[in-house]
Each structure stands twice: as structure tokens, then as C-alpha cells.
Known about the structure:
The structure is a homodimer of 618-residue chains. The first copy, chain A, is α/β, with parallel strands linked by helices and 618 residues long. Chain A is 39% helix and 15% strand. Chain A has 21 helices and 19 strands.
Amino acid sequence: MHASSRVSALRNIATRLRIDSVRATTAAGSGHPTSCCSAADVAAAIFFSEMRYDPRSPQNPDNDRFVLSKGHAAPLLYAAWAEAGIISRDDLVTLRRFDSDLEGHPTPRLPWVDVATGSLGQGICAAIGIALNARRINSDYRTYVLLGDGEIAEGSVWEAAHAAVHESLDSLCAIVDVNGLGQKGPSLWNHDIDAYVTRWQSFGWHVIAIDGHDMDAILSAFDEARSTKSKPTMIIARTVKGKGISFVEGKNGWHGKPLKKGEEADGAIAELETQFVPEELPAAQPRPRSIPRPPAKAPAPLSPPSYALGDKVATREAYGSAIARLGTNDERVVALDADVGNSTFSEKFEKEHPRRFFEAYIAEQVMIGAAMGLAARGAIPFPSTFAAFLSRASDFIRMAAISNSNIKMAGSHAGVSIGEDGPSQMALEDLAMMRAQPNMTVLYPCDAVSTDRLVERMAYHGGPAYMRTSRPKTPVIYGPDDDFHVGGLNVLREAGGDEATVIAAGVTLFEALEAYDLLSKQRITIRVIDLYSVQPIDTATLVRCARETKGRLITVEDHYVAGGIGDAVAAAVAGHGFSVHRLAVREIPRSGAPEQLLDYYGISARHIVDAVTEGRRV
Amino acid sequence: MHASSRVSALRNIATRLRIDSVRATTAAGSGHPTSCCSAADVAAAIFFSEMRYDPRSPQNPDNDRFVLSKGHAAPLLYAAWAEAGIISRDDLVTLRRFDSDLEGHPTPRLPWVDVATGSLGQGICAAIGIALNARRINSDYRTYVLLGDGEIAEGSVWEAAHAAVHESLDSLCAIVDVNGLGQKGPSLWNHDIDAYVTRWQSFGWHVIAIDGHDMDAILSAFDEARSTKSKPTMIIARTVKGKGISFVEGKNGWHGKPLKKGEEADGAIAELETQFVPEELPAAQPRPRSIPRPPAKAPAPLSPPSYALGDKVATREAYGSAIARLGTNDERVVALDADVGNSTFSEKFEKEHPRRFFEAYIAEQVMIGAAMGLAARGAIPFPSTFAAFLSRASDFIRMAAISNSNIKMAGSHAGVSIGEDGPSQMALEDLAMMRAQPNMTVLYPCDAVSTDRLVERMAYHGGPAYMRTSRPKTPVIYGPDDDFHVGGLNVLREAGGDEATVIAAGVTLFEALEAYDLLSKQRITIRVIDLYSVQPIDTATLVRCARETKGRLITVEDHYVAGGIGDAVAAAVAGHGFSVHRLAVREIPRSGAPEQLLDYYGISARHIVDAVTEGRRV
């Protein structure tokens, strides 16, 4: 048993959290008060008994961390902060207002939020990255994550289940708030606590089932979790949705509904106020911590890569070499992969820095989620897989953008140029997926030197970034002194009287250079641009080239026509009245030899020549 | 024990499947022979003892079905077909060639393939849909799905695990080929059979662990699966990668590598040939079935919807009403949702047709995967959730496009117009995701009438389709006689001397109409287009309008700027030299009131007015 005074204080905090959650959502006119009420006792225990954190210093690297995976219970989180003195209690009623950072679901606009949540099943994946980071920085901080029962149906949760066990993350403690009700009706397993216990046990977690409204049981469970070694702990908390407000308790149809201003809300608050218990001690406080740490030393810049002009090196292989070198210079760099490290060449990093490499197996969601968690705590993570399979983590990438997460993704095997494996392995929509996010940096190098240089650039450019690499070997065309930067491009062929500007990147850049040679024989010159930075894009140079080449811009890309390089260039130059002729893949492709496919789908040198000369005749 | 003659015949088939897999991959110079060899005994048993199917009639609705979730073992599948006489054995060596339908991973170009596989963890989700379809058509056919051990790490597999149990799918039998090796090294649980057994048991499956090379054990397992009622069966088959070829058996480093032509391949085949055993009976044959069924009756067209001009109805609600009405007229229509049926309004369908509604809970991957399986067997599935959360199934949508799957997706709560819930719930990249697929129909109605009409159009337009719906109520602007079709648009305002063409859809259409009214007061007229079909797009009308309105096209959309309506229109008119002024969301948004957000992010009537008048001054 825990000291009754401590329990009483925490119970009163839980009641205040419920009252604040009701007040805030009623003021907002929307939100999820019943989902807050079910988790209020657990939240009180986490924030005012269990976690060690300094409320004045969210960036303290040794703070215990909390992730609200059930992001719709945001008002509960904000109420806990108010209780801890992190924000003013008066601010709580600004919930969901345009002029308030207390958004409908938590985002890292708020310094205590590591990752945006609200897309369910993601917070637990981020928590794994946060826990892995503790190991990276040799900290004993613990990571707590609160899930709803509805989100347990998400596959990503089970990716997290195996990853946490594989990494023996005993500093990770998850809690499921089993209130039994989803949005539309009962959740998948309703209040069948055993359904949760057996599943999580079978995945290798230490599992504790409790009454989530019994403060003594909650505290004991956290004690037990803290003393559990070599495996993560899952606390299954049986709760009642809307707990404390009798007319909504356990009732369906109250998900995401605030109590109405006036009688309804006032009645609920009055009822909650009757639940305060006598306290013998002042209210519980967070347990602050302050461990002095030496300042991190600045990393050395990379030396120029040692590729020779004409060497044939796949950009995916150059990527692997670059992150391995970068990892040597900068201890913050970590890499993750999804069982294809021998294809993406992240295995080069693993070989050099095995303690900073995380194998996610074939589970792309937890790979990106863990990368988000690592990034939130100061690591510079490079997760990689086939570009096609990054689409598996598309919703995580969306949330990473909302979080402005500092993750550096790499996708290999882009486009039809992979050849025989066929369309399931070809990324032809990855540029569309990545470009859609307005804060995403999108890089697409064509050779080993530019890959190497851009890996370093993306590492130190803030926010989410993506590098697209290719399967085939391509010749090195750049020297050690060539410059590359986020938002740049290189004009590789340029002359007075150029007939058109051909804009390419990656494998198609070599098709463009071949087209240049073919056209030269007809005494036609074209301008050739290597658009290695697809987003941001160098609008000024594109517009200048358009003006200098009769207004004719031709893009050629190993990607579907929608959302790729053609669209990026067109959007950039639209304000200047130019339009773009797009050469791109326009149908679902099939297996075949790479050259055969480039030609069949209309993105080979021959098609560029045709586009230049046909346009000329018009 | 099974008759030894039957066992001998099947063992010999397995040996032939191995030899054919080696021959084909060696001829192709790429592929995964070792992943075929581990599963050859199981495949022989499935195709020549267990499954009932008519090899001459892939479309027989009562055939048992097989899904190769580990799609990289395609040569094994093709070899089984050759053995069954479905294709010629001589064709096997055309594997992966551009002129062959025997692609690197199976696609539905081949009539026995229901869904494309090759992105791991998807086949089992499709198998759930195929099994659900048996229930829909009152057939006793059984569904078999073969998984690799590596793909068990995918979260989607665990979504399937709970969905199959929730639906009590005892006609579903899954087999994991536990060869212990992934691409890069040992799989997550290697040969720890117990790790598989406990997990699948905990999820409620009937689990049978066997030696996957013991034909008698394989046949017994299938017998047991067939007699298991009310739950699906999972057979955990312990196997050896490269089984039968001593110099690769169980060795790491042989994933996705063909044997070299000459000594290496010849030696392997010679060794396999020594493994033939004496047979007392002729080779096993498929067990054909032919159950007469009456032809399906053609569905009646929908009567016109009964909305009155000016009614305020959210398009999401009109969507729910439309699929419910459609379901009454056409028994093939089914609906699926991910716990938000009271937001997407698919609950209207559920209420009318509960037996044809499938609740996937918060598990979007298995929802789309099951829809693909249902579509493959003749259903017309409408899966729905918040549009933002369809991104969770992005890789499934990619594979649905490769499969040209007849699924009809609906995403609600698009854009910043959802308001207070904040960015995690706002779909702002769904058009980019959907448009990227070249065969995807993308519809975006603005009112209840057009929604109703377009639901019917999308149902009977072949291939994958997506409808974007909105949260706010919008006024009905169309009457019962207005026509809508895939690839169409409506010109709502048109006059001689129009200053520009404003192209909008969904909620922004009303901003455009308001801008029209505001500009009219300044005696400026604009053309206003309702672009309800974003893909395909009516290029001819857009070009005509551009020509008639001084070449000025302005798009306005509740979507990020990349990949949406602006890009779609720009790509359509580029060949005619027109460019497009795009009004779209250009940064990560935040919580706020809908009108506030539309205005702040630059897509309200005021911004349209500015774009028209500023352009005019230039």
C-alpha cells in the first residue's frame, strides 16, 4: 500500500484534471472530455508521482518523457501541465482556438510534446525511439506512453510490440486506457482485459492488469514496471469512459462530444467537485531532476568523397558510404532499416556503428515512428528502405511533417529502372508523397559525389527530409569541388541558342545527357539541368533557363506523371507564364530489363530527342 | 497417416516445383529460388491435394482461392500452375521478361492472381476479403494464403490477425513458411516456432505447428484446418530456405539470388532430381469443382436523389445515403469502415445492409486489403474513413492500383475546413496520393446531389476510385436532372468577357461562387468551374475556358499545393501553353474555426478576388 496521503493528493489531482478537461472542451465547443476522464487517474499518477522531470526545462535530456498516443485526450495533457505549473490554468479554456497553441491534438508547437499525435497507433512507435535515445545518450530517463484501447487495432502498435521486446526496452512503460468504447461503439475487445493481457504477454511484454481508477493499484503497477528488467511493461488499465460524471459514464454516443454550456457542464463539474477527498499533505508535485551534462561537441565537416570521375557507383551505395562517414564525425547520427540494409546499403553504417543502428525488420511504420522519437530527443536519424515501402509509413510521414520532425529518410530502388522485380518494388509515387508535405526537403542525386554531399546537407538542414536513390550503377560526373545545397540545381549543358531546357534527376539525368549528344549531331543544342533538389526548388534559375531557351521546359523523370518533377517545375515557373512538357511514366508498369522499361515508358534519351525536335517543328 | 502413394506423388511434385523454380530464376538471371524451395512441399499439398478448383476456369466463383502473400516466391506459384496444366511448362523460363506475364512478383494480369503481391504483409489482408466474399455469395469455397516469416513483422499482418478472428473466418487457412531467414539475415524470430505459436494463439487463431517438409504432417494440418470451426487456422511450417539444394540450404546470403547458369544451376537440378521417389499412382491432380449458379441479375439504376436546392447537407452524409441506396439496388455493393462510420456516414449503409458491412475497427490496412480481396471476387466494396487516415493504407492503395482493383474508397474530413480538431485529422495530401496512381479515378463533389450521382458513377466505372468528402454542410446547388460523369466538370458561371477561370471543387467551390458575387459588384465577371472529377480531367473544356478567359486559370483547393487540383489542371493544359495560378494550403496548418482557417491559409473568397484583380492589373 502507498501512503494514503499521497494517494489522496493524487486522487484530487485526477479530479481537477477531469474538471479542467470538461471546462476546456465545453469552452471550445468540441473535443473529447469522456476520453480524458477515463485516463485522469493514470495521468495524475504519471505526472505527479511517477515521472521525474523538471517542469521549467522541457529540453533537459534526462527528463522522463511522456507521449500521449491517444492524442484526442489532449485536454487532459494540458490540464496536467497546468497542474504542474508549466502553463497557466487560465489558458486551458483557449483550447482549439486559432490563437492558442493548445490545439485539438498535441503538436510540438508545445515544448513538452515530442511528436504530434492524433493519428492513432503512432505514439507508441515514437516512444520506442525516445527510449532508444536514452540508450544512445547513456541516460536513465524512462519513457511513458498512454494509449487508448481503440488504437490497439492498428497494426503499427504490434510493430511496436515486437520492436520494444527485440530491443529489450525496460525503460519503456506503456499504459492502455481500456475504457471499452471506440468512436462508434464498443472497441474491438471491449472490456475483455484478458484479451489484452494474453496478446501482450505473448509478444514478450511484462503485463500488469489493474483497475485504472484505483490509485493504489496504479502506483503499484508503476513500481513493478520500474523494477522490471530487460523487457518493456504494458499496464492494462480497466477504466470507465467519462468516469466521474454519472450521466455519461460508460455510455456509448459520447465520444468526441463536449458537455453543453450551462446545466450540462455545470452539473458535471458540480458532481466532480463532490469527489474531492480530504488531503493531509499539500498537493503532489513533479519530481524534478537536473543532471549536469557536458555540452555536445560540434561535429567535424565531412572530407570530400574519394570517387573518381567515371566510376560507376549506385547512388544507394554512395548513400550507405556517406551515412557511415557522417556517423563517424557526428555521434548524433543513427540509422534504421527494415531488413533491406544490404539493398539500401545502410549496412555500411551498421558495420561502422553497430550500437547506433536499429533493425526494424519488415516493419516500416515503427521504423519511421522510432526515428521520429529519436529525432525529438536530439538524434539525427536516417531511416531507409525501398522507396516503394516508405509508402507503408505514409501516415507516419504525414505526422512527421506536422511535427516538423528532424528525420532524414532514404528510399532506394526508385522507378522502373529497377527492372525485373516488377511494379510492386518500383517507387513511382514517392516524390508525390514527399513533395505533398510543404516542409519536406526532397533530394534526388544522380551520382555518388552529389549523393555524398547531399547526405551531409540533409543531415544539417532542419526538418524532415527525403533522399531518393536508385538501383542501377551510374557514372560519377561531379568532382570534389562541386557544390550542392538544399534548394539548388546544376546546369550541366548550356550554350547560346539552346533549343529547350531539359530537366532531369537521378537515372534520367543520363538519358538527358545522351539526348544532348544525339541532338548535337543534328546541330541542336539543349540546356540540361540536374534537379537534385526537387523541394525546395531553384525557381530563379528555372525561370532564367526558360527565358533563354525559347520558353521550352521539358522534364523527364522515373516517376508517375502526377506529383513528381514535372509538377514541381511547373508550379515553380507558373507565375512567370511558362508551362512544362512532362516525360514521365503514365501507366502501371511491368517487369522487364531496366533499359527496355525506360524506353517503353517514354523516359529514355530517344523520347527526349523526340520531345525537343517535335516541339521545334510546331 | 495418409496413403503413401498420395504422399509420394506430392513429394515428387514438390521436387518438380523446386527444379522449375531454379530453372526459371536461372534463366531470368534474378529472382528468389531459395524462397521457393522452402515452400515447395506446402505448395504441392495446397495445389494438388487440398484445394478444390477447376484449372480451366479461374473465374468459377466456387473455386478455392490461393494468395501468395510472400510474392517473391512467384516462380513457385507459376511452377504449380504449369504442373496443373494451367500454363505451359515451357513458358516458365520466360520469367521476368518484358514479353511475359510471368512477372517478378504476381499481378492480376494472370487470371489466377486475385491481387498483386510483393509488398509484404498484404496478401493475408486480401485473403480476409476473399474469405468474406464466400459468405457474401453463400459459397463454401476456402481461402489459403502463404506467408513468409519475414513479413510477420508487418503490422498489417496483425490487423489481419484480429480481423479474421472477429469475423470468425473458419474458411481461411494461412500458412507461414518459417524458413528463418529474411533478406539481410535471420528473421525476427528465426526458427523459434513457439514465438509464432503463442502469438497467433493469443490472437485467437487455431494454430498448428509442423515440419514444413513432412508431407504427411502438411496434409494432416490441412485436414485439421478444414474441420476447425468458427476460427481461422494458422499453420506454422518450420522449413529450410533453399531446401533440397545442399550448398544453399539454410545459408544466409542467398536471398533473392538465382543460381548461376552452368555448373551451379546444373548441380542443383541434378541433386534435386535424385530426390524423386517411386510413385505407385499417376501424379496428383487438382480437385476440380463445378457448382451451377444462376446468372446474376443486373442492378437497377438509382432513382434521382430527393435533395432540394438550398438544403444544407454535408457531402459525407450524402455519401452515406448514396451507398445505402446503391446497396439496395445492387447486392454486390459492400461497405467497410474503420470505427468512424458515424463520421463518414457509412453507418447508413450498415443500418440498411448489416450483413454486407464490415467493421475493421481502427485498422485501415486490413480494411483496404479486405476490400481488394472482396473486389477480386466480384463484390463492389466501398471502404471509408477520414481521408487523412487512408494514408495509413497508402501502400495498399499503391498495390490496389497495380492490381487495377475495383475498390471504391471514400475519405471524409478533407482539408482545413474540418477546423478545430487540427492538422492530424486534416487530409491535405490525399489528392496527391490518389492522383499519383495513373489508373485511379478521383472525384470530389461539392454538394449532396453530385455526391449521390457520382457514387453511382464510381461504382460502375472499372478500376480503383476515390471520393473525397467534406465535413461542413454545404448547400445543394444541383437539381435532379444535372448530369455527372467520370472525367466531367460543370461550368457554373460563364459569360463573354470573363476575366479569368476559377476552378474549384468541394468546399472551395462555394468560395469561388462567393468571389463571383463579390467581383460582380466591381463589374468583373469570372468563369467558375466545379471540377468534381479531378482524375480523369476534362482537358478540352479547361483549354476552351482558358482561351476564352484571357488565358487565366486560377485553381483554389482545400489541399496542399503539391499534387492537388492545381497540379492536375496545370498538367492538363500544359500542352496548350497555359499555366495555372494555384491557391492552396502552403504550410502545416493548426486548429481553428473552419472559416478562419480557409481565410488564413489563402483559399477563401477574398483571396480568389485578390488573385483575379491582381492578375488583372499586371
